[in-house]
Amino acid sequence: MSDYDDDDDGDKLKVDESWMNTFSDLSLLLLTFFILLCSMSTIEVIKFQSVFGSMRQAFGGIQTEDLQSGGTRDALDKSEKDEQAIQQFLRVREELLEAQRRSYNEIRSFITTKGMEGEVSAVFDEGVVTLTVPASVLFAQGEEELSPEAEPVLRSLLNIFMQERDQTINIKGYTDNSPVPPGKRYKDNWELSALRAVNVLRWFVDAGVPIVRLTATGMGDLNPLFPNDTPENQARNRRVEFSLERQVRSK
User: Fold this and answer.
1) Which residue has the higher pLDDT, 244 or 79?
2) Closest CA to 102 of 83, 141, 129, 74
3) Bigger pLDDT: 184 vs 241
4) How far is CA 100 from the centre of its chain?
């Protein structure tokens, strides 16, 4: 065999091993990747509890102590119970609002049937029924004692209050901004409004409404319905309001 032939056979026996460099690089990258995954899957307990505790304080949930004591299940159960309590509260609130709407409609129907539109007005707002009576229907101007003409209106209101036994009644007296005439029993409009509210309350207590359902508040010339710039507007601001709120009966 010639020298040329021997050299040619030697070249044929040589193997290209350059791919090993690429393979080793790939293996190293894979090893690094799996080491990184392993390190990320290892939770630092102290750091986790610290972060979770901060989130718990901000949003509510499981206490850090629950994690340390193995009370996670109990804390989750408590959260579920809290959620159920909230849902129950919202359901009861909606039922109360619906019952209050029915009461409002019945009161409006009663006022219309009795022809009391000019003496009593009713509004419904956020679960509260407010009945408004002009002060001139119940009192002589500047007086705190009920006038004899107040009896029919108070009797009609009494019928409403006796029908709505689940309602508390806050009686609010209002005046205009007129100065108090000299020689009166009261010192200012605030005291006048308080005396009027208390005298109305006493009338209903004497008529049989349980006193625990009644409160009286003097508002003076606060919260006017209209600017006190004309005698007509001042007369509209002199009023007595009855705020009815439904209470949950204990079973």
Assistant:
1) 244
2) 129
3) 241
4) 17
Q: What single-letter amino acid sits at 74?
A: D
Tokens at 148, concatenated: 């004899």
Can you tell me the distance from the alpha carbon of 214 to that of 208, in angstroms, rounded to the nearest whole number? 11
Number of Cβ within 10 Å of residue 53's Cβ equals 17
By residue count, the chain amounts to 251
Q: Which helix (H) or strand (E) covers residue 243, if one does?
A: strand 239-246
Spatial separation of the C-alpha atoms in residues 243 and 129, rounded to whole Å: 6
Query: Are the C-beta atoms of 214 and 242 separated by less than 8 Å?
Result: no
Query: For the whole prediction, is pTM greater than 0.70?
Result: no
Alpha carbon distance 23, 16 (integer Å): 13
Classify 125 as helix, strand or coil. Answer: strand
Query: Is residue 222 exposed (0-12), middle (13-18) or buried (19+ Cβ within 10 Å)?
Result: middle
* Cα–Cα dist 73/51, whole Å: 19
Beta 121-125 vs 167-174: how paired, if at all? Answer: unpaired
Both tokens assigned to 143: 């007086």
Q: What are the tens digits of pLDDT across the range 5-24?
A: 555 555 555 556 666 777 77
Neighbours of 83 (CB within 10 A): 10
Residue type, 18: S
